[in-house]
Design goal:
Oligomer: single chain
CATH architecture: Beta Barrel
Order of helices and strands: HHEEEEEEEEEE
Shape: globular
Number of domains: 1
Number of strands: 10
CATH topology: Lipocalin
Largest sheet: 10 strands, antiparallel, barrel
Helix content: 10-25%
Length: 164
Amino acid sequence: MKKIITLLIFASSSLIFDAQASLGEKMNEDGIGWIMGSWSVERDGNKLELSYKWAVKDHIISSHLKMPGVEGFSVIGINPKTGEVEQSGFNSRGSKITGKWSPKGDMPMLKHTSINDADETRTAAIAFRKVDEQTIEVHLFSVDDSGNVGDSADYTFQMTRVKE
């Protein structure tokens, strides 16, 4: 009898967990699947590389950032408790980065906070706009002490898709 009850609880909880929309479905609904892939830009002899790839198809994205002096890796997924898209990772400088994805107008935006071993924190936001199939525009925003993202980008540049 215990085994049957355990099996029923497991089966019904699986149905509940399966009911939540996957990250892939959410991205398709929001029309932002174009962000997936590898992107690159070179400015003043410095190369910046950024990639978004499925670590677990339709559920977890791995993000890899590489630029002069720092490299970082994080994962992106849906928090099952809040339904928010969250990102968490670490970089080669020993900092931990956490953030949440949300819209900034028609752009997907990551508002993130980094904390280092000296307990110093920095918060910023980065948003993306599709220019065409091979190009995205990156917008960097400052965030004030109250957590409000600036109305206009402090810096904007374009990245091109890297063939894989």
